[in-house]
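Hi everyone,

Forwarding the result from last night's run.
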Amino acid sequence: MEYYPIKLTFCKPGSPWHYDKFTLTEFLDHTFVRLKKLLKGGPVLKVSNILITEDTTIAIVEMIQLSYSINDKPFNNTYCWIVKFENEIIVHVRAYLDSALVQALVNEN
């Protein structure tokens, strides 16, 4: 994964899962591995829109997730990631999502 540095700054404003710096493996363990246990078929995100700045140092990525929890409740979340690049490497991600929906998923399953 040559697009990721050893440590990445990742921020989820207002989320109980706000991380400062972590490795890609740590990010995957804290998010997708955790969600995989709670969602039928695991987390599946679909990119709905990408906006890239003219100098290509910032990308805004909008995603949707249409999944079902293991207790058959819909888990339909939307995401907006603002991704900063330096020398074609991702160095910072600011993620906006419905963290209350994620917390409800954790509490109910």
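The chain has a mean pLDDT of 81.

Cheers,
N.
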